[in-house]
Specification:
Number of strands: 5
Helix content: 40-55%
Strand order of the largest sheet: 1-2-5-4-3
Largest sheet: 5 strands, mixed
Order of helices and strands: HHEHEHEEHEH
Radius of gyration: 19 Å
Strand content: 5-15%
Oligomer: single chain
Length: about 170
């Protein structure tokens, strides 16, 4: 009975020929893309771990991560996902940081070619906050690194935090 009420009956049990072609086309370059993303992410994370405006970085392939040795045993690489806690006193400071990033799109659809950012403070400021129960800190930001050059992304992160510093200075 349940099979007739699900997507199976609408979409079918197989993907369309065009979708299959797109998948095969994407799989051909997947190893190169994953390698590039992993290398760039390691550079960005190494930079962020040295910044006084970053409270903490969460990335399993960072030597400072508590499960670093386990991650190395289980995986060849870590991909492009990581999180950080920004040293911020207010949600507004996190929003200024994220809104001033030029090479990171505000989204949560990981795995594409572009770098993405998703600040957890949106859970605090959304209309449905009362329905969203989270213990994540407001200053936690989730990142996905895409195919852009590490230097461009690092410069973008620096300039975005510069905007936060300008805001803080103007407030005092």
């Amino acid at each position: 009975q349940q099979i007739f009420e699900s997507e199976f009956m609408t979409l079918g049990g197989i993907i369309s020929p065009h979708d299959a072609w797109l998948m095969i086309r994407g799989l051909r370059t997947l190893p190169l893309r994953v390698q590039k993303v992993s290398e760039t992410t390691a550079k960005v994370v190494a930079f962020l771990e040295q910044q006084p405006w970053v409270k903490k970085v969460y990335y399993p392939f960072s030597p400072s991560h508590p499960q670093y040795s386990l991650a190395q045993k289980q995986m060849k690489g870590c991909g492009g996902l990581f999180s950080l806690e920004l040293k911020a006193d207010t949600i507004e400071e996190v929003e200024i940081f994220c809104n001033n990033l030029h090479y990171f799109l505000l989204a949560c659809s990981w795995g594409g070619h572009e770098s993405l950012v998703f600040p957890m403070c949106v859970l605090y400021t959304s209309q449905n906050y009362m329905q969203v129960q989270t213990q994540l800190p407001f200053n936690l930001i989730r990142f996905y690194i895409g195919l852009e050059d590490a230097g461009i992304l690092i410069a973008d992160l620096e300039q975005a935090y510069g905007c936060v510093q300008s805001f803080i200075s103007g407030r005092q």
